[in-house]
Specification:
This protein has a two-stranded antiparallel sheet. The protein is mostly helical. 76% of the residues lie in helices and 2% in strands. A hairpin with a 3-residue loop joins β1 and β2.
Length: 239
């Protein structure tokens, strides 16, 4: 939040400097005051040249405005465009991740229409409804299949690795000043790594893996309970 405030204060300061420079550029120029302003004596007095230093003030003002324009075109615009491309790409990959993960869970649960339904179950509300308490046998059937069939476990690991790689790519290729967002992404990546490699999790991997899948796909929090939004998607949109 601190970096967010500093960043926007910097932008506001640059913008204010541009406004002041525009005013000083017109005031210090040799151009006559607009005829339409002659009926307003105060405006005429405000736009009349300084007694001395007009050339220096004019050159400094123009130089500042050119520098700001150059900065916007060369630095800000490309960076914003690159950030938008990577953010949208990550959103697309996250959507693919949820669809493929839903397909795996549906297939493991024995649903014959797993592919078609997987598109619907990317919505955490639909996923939560499909594997609800009244239909909990589906969830247990899926976890049991993952436990007994290594191919399902491999599929889940592949999807987790692909999503992790996309997050790492974003972290390594754009500057993110939102410390809360960085901390969230790193916690997510660290948890995915521990699920696969830490003895604490691998001792009963399916149990912890099922909890991880439920948190993401059903938008569940062990602290807050059921959420009415997709936390990961919301965080990606902050990039």
């Amino acid at each position: 939040m601190k970096n967010f405030i500093v960043k926007h204060r910097t932008g506001a300061a640059v913008g204010a400097g541009a406004v002041v420079s525009c005013f000083l550029m017109f005031k210090s120029s040799n151009e006559p005051v607009l005829a339409s302003l002659e009926q307003y004596p105060q405006a005429v007095a405000l736009m009349t040249q300084f007694e001395i230093g007009n050339t220096v003030i004019f050159n400094i003002s123009v130089g500042y405005l050119v520098s700001v324009l150059f900065w916007l075109l060369v630095v800000v615009a490309p960076h914003s465009r690159r950030r938008a491309i990577l953010r949208n790409n990550l959103l697309m990959h996250y959507s693919d991740f949820k669809r493929d993960l839903a397909h795996t869970m549906l297939d493991a649960a024995g649903d014959r229409d797993s592919y078609e339904k997987s598109f619907e179950l990317t919505d955490f509300r639909k996923f939560r409804e499909y594997f609800s308490e009244s239909e909990r046998h589906r969830w247990h059937a899926a976890l049991n299949a993952i436990q007994s069939d290594a191919s399902y476990l491999t599929d889940v690991h592949v999807e987790m690795d692909l999503l992790s790689d996309e997050f790492r790519y974003v972290l390594n290729n754009i500057e993110i000043s939102d410390q809360e967002l960085i901390a969230f992404i790193k916690r997510l990546l660290n948890y995915v790594y521990r699920l696969k490699h830490s003895p604490t999790f691998t001792g009963d991997e399916v149990k912890y893996l099922g909890g991880f899948i439920w948190e993401i796909m059903a938008s569940w929090s062990t602290i807050d309970g059921q959420r009415d939004f997709d936390l990961i998607e919301r965080m990606i949109r902050r990039i």
